[in-house]
Inverse folding.
């Protein structure tokens, strides 16, 4: 079924935003402002693109993402890869979505490499809008085991499918605001891949002590806990409410949070960088998280 029951809306009106921002939110971690994006939609046959509602919604979501971030969309590619793109039941057909982002670092002094990261730096988290493409496979697996599947109602009354499809939040405007104000950013990190464990991204012997967390956790994640997903698995699979991390020296914390607020983002001081074995110490739940990929 390609539409939400009885709504006339396709599932694709926000997916282009997720796809584009998977690249856009990564490139800004180096201090680059995205300027050009080209997309690719690869399906198992050209028939996938003949659904007008679905195709229009996907194209519109690419356009919306580029408009939000001030990015040009000059070209794209649609290909049929019959022997490479295969859907797994109960999905009949689904595309592989990807793209290429070009960014500019200007002036060059704005380049962020992470090499300035040091003991004593504070860790600031930026509140996410929800899933942000982290852990989608786990959400799909759990949803398909439910009687109502993606139409299951969450405790807050929202529908599971709609909650999972909340578009990724762009952090381009936040990055631009911080750079314009010349904040001394020691490292910038998108909250994707390995969840909260990704905080330990640097290969040097640093421990990252998280002493507090956001007041609210996205309801989709809490529902996954109700379905039996352990808290540690949630912390290493989902972003758990933080879409981006900013590492700054102590004297920049208050200013960073204030600039973020003026740019309409919610920022929280979560913890600090310490000397020690490479790991994340999640104190609110007394859990030790390994570095990404371990």
């Amino acid at each position: 079924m390609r539409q939400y029951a009885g709504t006339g809306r396709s599932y694709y009106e926000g997916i282009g935003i997720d796809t584009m921002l998977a690249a856009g939110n990564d490139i800004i971690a180096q201090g680059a402002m995205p300027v050009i994006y080209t997309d690719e939609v690869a399906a198992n046959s050209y028939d996938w693109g003949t659904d007008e509602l679905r195709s229009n919604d996907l194209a519109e979501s690419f356009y919306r993402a580029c408009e939000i971030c001030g990015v040009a969309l000059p070209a794209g590619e649609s290909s049929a890869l019959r022997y490479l793109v295969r859907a797994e039941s109960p999905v009949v057909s689904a595309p592989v979505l990807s793209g290429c982002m070009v960014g500019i670092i200007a002036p060059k002094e704005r380049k962020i490499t992470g090499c300035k990261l040091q003991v004593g730096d504070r860790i600031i988290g930026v509140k996410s809008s929800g899933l942000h493409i982290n852990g989608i496979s786990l959400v799909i697996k759990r949803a398909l085991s439910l009687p109502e599947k993606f139409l299951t109602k969450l405790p807050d009354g929202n529908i599971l499918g709609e909650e999972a499809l909340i578009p990724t939040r762009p952090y381009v405007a936040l990055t631009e605001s911080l750079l314009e104000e010349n904040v001394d950013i020691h490292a910038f990190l998108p909250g994707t891949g390995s969840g909260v464990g990704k905080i330990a991204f640097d290969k040097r012997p640093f421990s990252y002590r998280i002493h507090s967390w956001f007041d609210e956790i996205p309801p989709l994640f809490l529902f996954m806990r109700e379905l039996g997903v352990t808290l540690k698995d949630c912390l290493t699979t989902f972003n758990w409410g933080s879409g981006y991390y900013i590492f700054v020296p102590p004297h920049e914390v208050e200013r960073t949070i204030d600039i973020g607020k003026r740019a309409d983002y919610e920022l929280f001081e979560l913890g600090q960088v310490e000397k020690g074995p490479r790991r994340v110490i999640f104190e609110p739940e007394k859990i030790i998280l390994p570095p990404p990929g371990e």
Summary: The chain is about 25% helix and 20% strand. The first strand starts at residue 33 and ends at 43. Residues 15-110 form a domain with the 60s Ribosomal Protein L30; Chain: A; fold (CATH 3.30.1330.10).
